[in-house]
Automatic annotation (TrEMBL):
Iron-sulfur keyword on record: yes
PROSITE patterns from the UniProt entry: 4FE4S_FER_1, 4FE4S_FER_2
Main location: cytoplasm
Binding site for [4Fe-4S] cluster 3: 144, 147, 150, 154
Keyword list, A-Z: 4Fe-4S, Cytoplasm, Iron, Iron-sulfur, Metal-binding, Repeat
InterPro entries, alphabetized: 4Fe4S_Fe-S-bd, 4Fe4S_Fe_S_CS, Fe-S_Ferredoxin, NapF
Lineage, broadest ranks: Bacteria, Pseudomonadati, Pseudomonadota, Gammaproteobacteria, Chromatiales
GO molecular function, one term: 4 iron, 4 sulfur cluster binding
Species per Swiss-Prot/TrEMBL record: Sedimenticola selenatireducens
Protein localization: Cytoplasm
Main function: Could be involved in the maturation of NapA, the catalytic subunit of the periplasmic nitrate reductase, before its export into the periplasm.
Residues that coordinate or bind [4Fe-4S] cluster 2: 69, 72, 75, 79
Binding site for [4Fe-4S] cluster 1: 37, 40, 43, 47
Record protein name field: Ferredoxin-type protein NapF
């Protein structure tokens, strides 16, 4: 196996069976990221919502349990080694993360809850009234920026986040 690929997999947890980590927004592709990131921690220190934590190998990763990213760009500006880098070709949002609502969602099981929809600034989650009076969530992936706000507020972790370019779904 290619040395760089195996190191990238190790740092993301793929070889250990642990959940994949999500790098801060605007991160280079994983192999380039681990080469470029010095682990300086400047992005961690500057994030106003303390969403970035130090992970394996001192590399930064998102902790969506703390809330959603509003793409303020402070981490991008702070990253002098350019491991976080604005790509003029890159469409908004600056990563390929998307949310998924799992079948254990309270609303899908006749318990009223609209927490995810209430925090979604993109209005990517709408509730459809079902027979019996409980509304179930519908997620519009085109609108979803992968900000993670819905993951943070779901009381039963029925929201998962995954990278659409990853080979398999991962919970954050
Ligand atoms: S864009 Fe802003 S809120 Fe999001 S991780 Fe970076 S510093 Fe934090
Ligand atoms: S500011 Fe850049 S180089 Fe420093 S830890 Fe964050 S991503 Fe890595
Ligand atoms: S991750 Fe997507 S669905 Fe969830 S709050 Fe953010 S934009 Fe809305």
């Amino acid at each position: 196996m290619d040395h760089n690929v195996s190191r990238a997999q190790l740092l993301r947890g793929d070889l250990s069976g642990e959940k994949t980590v999500f790098r801060p927004p605007w991160a280079l592709a994983e192999i380039e990221f681990i080469e470029q990131c010095t682990g300086c921690g400047d992005c961690i220190a500057i994030c106003p919502d303390t969403l970035i934590i130090q992970g394996r190998g001192k590399l930064p990763q998102m902790d969506f349990t703390r809330g959603g990213c509003d793409f303020c760009g402070d981490c991008l500006t702070a990253c002098e080694p350019a491991a976080l880098k604005l790509d003029s070709e890159q469409a908004s949002p600056p990563w390929d993360i998307k949310a998924t609502i799992q079948p254990n969602c309270l609303s899908m099981n006749a318990v009223i809850c609209r927490s995810c929809g209430e925090v979604c600034d993109e209005r990517a989650i709408r509730f459809k009234l079902e027979v019996g009076g409980v509304a179930t969530p519908l997620l519009d992936l085109d609108q979803c920026t992968g900000c993670g706000a819905c993951f943070a507020v779901c009381p039963i972790r029925a929201v998962t986040l995954s990278s659409i370019n990853e080979p398999r779904d991962q919970a954050a």
